[in-house]
Amino acid sequence: MPSSTHHVRRLTVDCAVSDLDTALALRARVEDLARAQMPPILERVFDALVPADRHLRLDRLDLDLGVIPASRLEQDLPAALERALGAALADAVAAASHAPDRTRRFMTPGEALLDRFDAYLATGASPPGGDAFDPAAQLRLLLAEQPAALVALLHRRASDRHALERLVLQAGAAELRTLLARLVPADATVVLAYLAELLRLHRAAPALPVSGSALERRLWLLTLDYLLRDAGTRFNRRVYLRFLVAGAALAEGVPYGGLLLALRAAATRTRRRPTAAAAPAGWPGRGC
What we know:
Blueprint: H1 20-49, E1 55-58, H2 73-98, E2 104-107, H3 109-123, H4 135-145, H5 147-156, H6 161-170, H7 173-183, H8 188-204, H9 212-229, H10 237-252, H11 256-270
Antiparallel strand pairs: 1-2
Helix pairs in contact: 1-2, 3-4, 3-6, 4-5, 6-9, 7-8, 8-9, 8-11, 9-10
C-alpha cells in the first residue's frame, strides 16, 4: 500500500520521568525519534494489518510502550512501538469489522471520498490519498453521486465559516447552482434571481468597495450560510434578502441603511425591478 494512503492527524508522545532535568534532556531525543524513526514503523504496521482495498477510519489509538530506560531510548522505543501498535491496530481492525461504531469503522469508497472532502473543508490542505486531490472535481463528483450525503456534510459544517469560504472558492457557477437546487429546490430560481439583480445593481452603481467577482463570492457565502443554518424551516424570501444585504454591508463596513438606499436609487435609475411575484417587500426599490 503506498505510504500516501495513510494519514495520522496527530501523534502525541507522553513520557513520565522522575525530574525536570531528565525531562529536558530527553525532549530532543524523543522529538528526533518521533520525526525520524516512528513514521516508518507506523507505515510498516499499517501496511501489514490494514487491507489494501479498504478504508479504515480510527478516531484515535492509545498505546502503552511500557517502561524504557533513558539510556536505551533509541534502541528499545522503536521495538516497543511496533509491538504495541501491532496489537492495538489488530484489535481495532477486528472491532471495525465486527462491531463498528463512530470511532472505528471501515468506509466504502464513497464514504472515503466524502471524508477526504470534509478534511479539505476543515483544514484547507489536500488530504492524503493515492491520487492528487482536486477539490472542484471532488465537489462535482459528490454532487453527481452523493448529493444527499454532501448536503448533510455541509449542514454539519454550517458554523465553520472557513469551510464555507473554501467551498465557494473552489466551486464554479455550475456547481453552486446544482448545490442550491439541492438545498432549496422550490426556491432556487428566486435565489438566483436575487443574486443576479444585486450584482446587476452593483455593476450599474457600485455601492460597495469591492469588485463584482468579490461581491458574487460574498453573496454566495452569505447564501450558503443562511440556507445551511436555516435547515428544516420554510424558506422566507424577505428574511433571506435582508440577511443578504445586511451581511454584505457588514462585511464591507457599510451602514445597512445606506446600502439599501443606494440599491434603491440604482434600481430606480436603471428602471428595472424584479417582478412583484419574485420580490417581497424589502427589495431595494420597494417598501421595507
